[in-house]
Protein: DUF659 domain-containing protein
Amino acid sequence: MFESVARHSPGFDPPSYHETRVKYLKYHVEMTNLSLDDHKTYWKKFGCTIMTDGWTDKRRRTILNFLVNSPLGTFPIYNIFFS
Structure:
C-alpha cells in the first residue's frame, strides 16, 4: 500500500515498524482510554446494558466477548478465549 502512495507522492517516507508499534499504538491506546472514560461517565449518569457475544473460530475454539451498550455506542470490555 505504501509503495503505491510513494509512486504518486515522491519523497513519501512510510512509518517505520518501530513508529507503528510504539508511537502510533501508544497514541491510539490513549485515545481509546479517553473515549472509554467518556463512556463510563455517561454510563454512571444514564445507565447501560451489559451484553455477551460468543462464537467459535476456524479451529473450533470458543471466544466469549463482553460488551457494554448505551446510546453512545457499544464498547468491548473483556474477551475470554477457551481452547
About this structure: The two ends are 35 Å apart (CA to CA).
